């Protein structure tokens, strides 16, 4: 077996060793009724992370953190509660939920979006629902889902549901709806959810079977480790009653599966020790070479000491060796305990780690509501960069041919064969794809279909979940727009000015990127008010000068007239979009 194939196995082994060091109090699921926030977590979710933020904030180990925060003065701290709703100081518990792809329809695409991330917040004091609405969802539309009010701003990025006067749900509308409509109580995460209702400040659950693991990845797992693929769920928690202890429970379908899983974990630990030992020897050799092999000699031939500038690297090597030895000790005798269908292990964390664990958890809980904004900013930036690259490609084509490409390439009988997006492939680093196209055949011909089915990264918009090989990047065509069906315009023909003329639009229904389907411009028809509805009415555009801009269609002055003047390249009405 190659090292590359063994690497994931070794990593699992290392983690299993870390989770199998010192026995401690077992993780006990509380049998009491679930609080309102945890009762919302679907037991068939992909996973969840539950943080008792208030308990952690008041933990003795966080006293230094509190001191720094309170050093700003009571008045300054009080301003936060005065200007935010709900009051930040009343944050009690935070639960981050990942839903299966089938739970609600993901509306956006990113690393986590196939799982429709949703946030559940619980507060220590009742909040004023109307104040929260005004702060988060101005001009909101409300509807009832499972007896609860769901609020969605007219152009909001986040939906909000009021469960009671202390509990909120935030996320995509589809995710919030799925949480409210949840009725699954006996799924793989039921035990983990019940455990979160206890006193442990941090509890996480993972539904392993819900993870989208490619079948080909499972096939490559050696037979001796195959029992681990039977794993149903994993529950992890941190107990900070006395000293921080990480506890992990792995749940299998039955006792026989758990027995096989235990044997596989111990084999993984043994295998990991082999690789760790090899790496330890390499690091020892490198440390010796680094410290002794590079030492300079004085005039008498004696080696002189190393300068302090070389100390950090040497210290890191020594620390690395210490860490490897520590992990090796853990893996040598992993006390994995088996009880029925469960394997349980725990590891005592160093005392100094408690501040970082608690502080990091509190920070994560407080910052989670902002994750949506950060994610959307990144997606918007990527979309605008794609438009920028398309604009550069169109200008590169103009530099070579003296004109922009036509909107479509026509066949001998005047039939549209393929889009301008095929024509500029060489200018967006896709020459290999372009060279295989049969340029005298339609985009979906037998020869070209396999190429048209490829997803071109520059043509994807990360802000929405597109079908493979689809795009929303189109050009306006005809009736004085910058593009015509069969001929390409020259820059000199854009007499309204390149900075005042739209070249590419991001909106409308997605189309196959190679298909010659664009925005057909008709000056007698108003620009569609809902053309950017998937983007909350924010229309991303590339202008003829290569710049990229986002137009708020909902707030654009005289939208119909303004868009008409921006699309037509020579109507004598140069619009300064910055004035709108």
Automatic annotation (TrEMBL):
- The domain of life for this entry's organism is Bacteria
Annotated signal sequence range: none
Q: Tell me which residues make up the DUF1559 domain.
A: 372-504
> What InterPro entries does this protein map onto?
DUF1559, Pilin-like
What PANTHER family does this protein map onto?
GENERAL SECRETION PATHWAY PROTEIN G (PTHR30093), TYPE II SECRETION SYSTEM PROTEIN H (PTHR30093:SF2)
- The protein in question is named DUF1559 domain-containing protein
